[in-house]
Backbone:
């Protein structure tokens, strides 16, 4: 079918409008990070008259976002590395290795992927209290790893299952043991799936809120989202400072997203919903 | 998972060595707490009090006779309209208009449309609280600037408007996801179907009804389930924007669990709500699995 140029124009108009509707609210807020308070209140639609880094500096030091940032990085890095490592092992066990009880173990692990954090949060809180782990990184890392391993196992089992048995057999024939086959054959062949997994677990961990809200009382141990939530309670009308805080929270995920968006979108469209 | 066999001389339980580290962390920090929540929901446990007695279904009776629970659940159901129905409607509408021809530069627009999916709900909440702010928020300023000051409202502070206002944020988060999901699915529907329909004189509604919607069945399933779960789980956004207020105008079940368990020390009662919420979400998640098994989609 031929398209008229009017129809093409109309379709792009729709696409551009709906994309801008997503884009404007968030950039509108974040631009405030570069403006002064009086400028924001005068005209929120104008571009900043100068790119001042004053607010960001204030949020980072006075608002303690520098400390929250460090906490978030530590929690996210340890969670991502250990979740992915453990998921590679469990996925390998389910997809390739001899393992008794696979039929009932697999749904057991799957359950964690389908239930929300709310389902575990009350006992988790008491468990961390008993172990005296509240106000430590472990209170955030351990539950997050448990949940991520559940999804990672599902994700990597189905990925490893697509790898032809002949490849694994021929590696074994060449004298490679199970451990070597995993790291020399399966992992290199699964780079796209692994990248998707890393990106998804990073996003979920970075943005996690409920766990961090409950487990951390000590302000200096807060992660960025909780730090921003409390910060907002105190500085509701200081929009530039608030925007600077929001910018610090958002930039890492947006950067990872822009760099790896193909992998992220693949995961999301593949139904990777954190239940 | 059917092809696995041990090599000659290999232990039949070799996989356990690889399984155990991950499995243990999962069991201790995810699986066991979930079971404990169910157990707690049968206990008379008032936070700090030392005695915890088994009281059968009393907490559930309390939940089901509590108007607060029904109020919160009804708000979650209204959120399904905002998180699920409106985004899917927008997504279908746009996909049927845009999806039939190659779109130059779509990757760029896809990046924008997916943006809310990567942002912390706290950041989104901060942005919309600013937009909705009664005095200096851009929404009211815009309304005043175009001479509609009578429409300017304290959006999040208004008993009638707070719920739809927070819901609208949900729509904003989800519609890009639905659009991209459906547009990706449209690539699979052969253009010939539409050409044949055009020859038969089908109108736009008939094309949507008989070609687009059946062709996107799997994608619509995924979108339904994903967005419904998001509507049922909403917590962060409410915590940041309204804390359930004004009054209880935006109270949702997730917030009720948090409030009962950690602010009001009604642990058993909160566990019962958490269990009910989990069962609903689990039932919907099982539907996702059904669609995943069908595997008619998910290929980029």
Residues:
């Amino acid at each position: 079918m031929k398209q008229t140029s009017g129809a093409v124009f109309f379709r792009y108009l729709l696409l551009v409008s709906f994309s801008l509707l997503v884009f404007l609210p968030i950039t509108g807020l974040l631009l405030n990070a570069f403006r002064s308070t009086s400028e924001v209140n005068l005209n929120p639609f104008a571009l900043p008259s100068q790119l001042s880094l004053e607010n960001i500096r204030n949020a980072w030091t006075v608002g303690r976002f520098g400390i929250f940032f460090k906490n978030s990085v530590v929690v996210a890095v340890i969670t991502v590395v250990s979740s992915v490592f453990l998921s590679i092992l469990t996925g390998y066990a389910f997809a390739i290795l001899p393992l008794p009880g696979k039929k009932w173990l697999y749904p057991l692990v799957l359950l964690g992927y389908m239930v929300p954090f709310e389902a575990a949060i009350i006992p988790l809180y008491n468990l961390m209290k008993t172990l005296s782990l509240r106000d430590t990184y472990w209170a955030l890392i351990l539950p997050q790893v448990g949940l991520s391993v559940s999804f990672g196992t599902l994700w990597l089992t189905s990925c490893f299952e697509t790898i032809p048995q002949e490849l694994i057999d021929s590696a074994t024939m060449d004298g490679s043991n199970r451990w070597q086959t995993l790291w020399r054959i399966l992992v290199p062949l699964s780079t796209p799936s692994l990248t998707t997994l890393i990106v998804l677990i990073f996003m979920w961990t970075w943005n996690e809120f409920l766990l961090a809200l409950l487990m951390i009382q000590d302000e200096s141990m807060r992660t960025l989202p909780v730090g921003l939530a409390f910060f907002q309670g105190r500085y509701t009308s200081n929009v530039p400072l608030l925007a600077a805080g929001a910018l610090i929270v958002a930039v890492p995920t947006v950067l990872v997203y822009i760099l790896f968006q193909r992998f992220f979108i693949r995961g999301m469209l593949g139904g990777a919903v954190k239940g | 998972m059917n092809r696995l066999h041990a090599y000659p001389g290999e232990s039949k339980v070799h996989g356990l060595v690889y399984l155990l580290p991950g499995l243990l962390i999962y069991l201790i920090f995810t699986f066991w707490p979930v079971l404990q929540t169910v157990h707690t929901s049968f206990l008379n446990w008032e936070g700090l009090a030392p005695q915890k007695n088994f009281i059968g279904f009393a907490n559930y009776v309390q939940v089901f006779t509590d108007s607060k629970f029904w109020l919160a659940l009804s708000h979650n159901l209204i959120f399904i309209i905002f998180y699920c129905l409106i985004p899917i409607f927008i997504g279908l509408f746009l996909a049927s208009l845009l999806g039939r021809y190659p779109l130059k530069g779509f990757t760029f627009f896809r990046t924008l449309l997916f943006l809310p999916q990567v942002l912390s709900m706290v950041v989104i909440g901060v942005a919309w609280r600013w937009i909705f702010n009664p005095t200096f928020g851009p929404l009211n300023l815009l309304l005043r600037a175009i001479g509609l000051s009578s429409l300017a409202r304290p959006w999040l502070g208004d008993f009638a408007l707070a719920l739809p206002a927070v819901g609208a944020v949900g729509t904003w988060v989800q519609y890009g996801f639905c659009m991209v999901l459906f547009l990706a699915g449209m690539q699979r529907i052969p253009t010939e179907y539409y050409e044949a329909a055009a020859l038969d004189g089908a109108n736009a509604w008939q094309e949507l009804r008989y070609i687009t919607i059946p062709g996107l069945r799997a994608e619509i399933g995924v979108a339904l389930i994903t967005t419904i779960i998001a509507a049922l789980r909403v917590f962060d956004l409410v915590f940041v924007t309204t804390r359930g207020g004004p009054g209880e105008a935006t109270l949702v079940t997730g917030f009720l669990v948090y409030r009962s368990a950690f602010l009001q020390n009604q642990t058993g009662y909160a566990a019962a709500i958490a269990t009910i919420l989990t069962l609903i979400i689990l039932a919907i998640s099982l539907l996702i699995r059904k669609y995943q098994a069908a595997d008619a989609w998910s290929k980029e």
